[in-house]
Amino acid sequence: MSSEAASDASQTDKSEIQAPTSDSADGAWSSRPLMGLCCALVAGLAAWLVVHAAHPVFATTEGADEWGFLPLDVQWRLDRNNSMFVLGLVGGLVGLALAIGEGLARRSPRVMLEGGAACGALGLVAGGLAGYLGHRAFEQVRANAEINDLNKAIYVNAVFFATLGAGVGLGLGFILTRRPRVTVKCLIAGLLAGGLASVIYPVIVAALLPAAMTSVLLPLETGERLLWFGLLTGLLGIFIPVMALGGCCGKTASSSQH
């Protein structure tokens, strides 16, 4: 009896040690906040480099007047498309990067490849939706003289960041764990990270970059863009792993006791 118990215990220990190397997407979250932060910041830097080189992707001079101004409906359409591109790029890269980080933590090429592709695709869709909704919010408050520029920027960025964060968190939680509780926690983490970034960003810009324009839809200057991308992606990289680990640590603890 004692030898059988020892054999069962050794098998249990081996299965617990080997759990992080599982190729299954159905499992406990494994990557730590530091890993998430590093992966997310790499994604933010990559997005910043692409936008710095290519923005604005959608532009035209057709129909412009003698001062170079486009008809309002044309300008709104271009702004909407550019915001959808930028936010879609950020969402796709962050979803991809955090999934790759989770795959590295599990030592699973399958999670890195398949999970990364799926989370990146969902992040892209969530980011595109965030860009569309953020542009609609910008249209609503832009001409409202009763709202100051700081509050306008917080409102628009809250729509941008919270929508993107919720979509990225939802995709990561569902695709990489398939656990409803962890999925909800990842969604909440994305909302919290996006909401916090939307408040912090305009305040930092107003304090450190007083010449920057916070009344525009997307940041214009290099430093503003770098802060915008880095703050959002960094908070997502921290909040999502923290909440995901909290969602499954109860099960981890109970399994280790057995």
Helix and strand arrangement:
Elements: H1 2-18, H2 33-54, H3 72-106, H4 109-141, H5 149-177, H6 180-208, H7 222-257
Helix pairs in contact: 2-3, 2-7, 3-4, 3-5, 4-5, 5-6, 5-7, 6-7
Brief rundown of the structure:
The protein is an all-alpha fold and 258 residues long. The protein contains seven helices and no strands.
Task: Provide structural commentary.
Helix 2 packs antiparallel against helix 3 (72-106), helix 5 runs parallel beside helix 7 and helix 6 (180-208) packs antiparallel against helix 7 (222-257). The protein has one domain. The relative contact order is 0.15. 78% of the residues lie in helices and 0% in strands. The protein is built from 7 helices and no strands. Residues 1-6, 9-21 and 247-258 have low confidence and may be disordered. By secondary structure, it is an all-alpha fold. The radius of gyration is 21 Å and the shape is elongated. The chain has helices at 2-18, 33-54, 72-106, 109-141, 149-177, 180-208, 222-257.
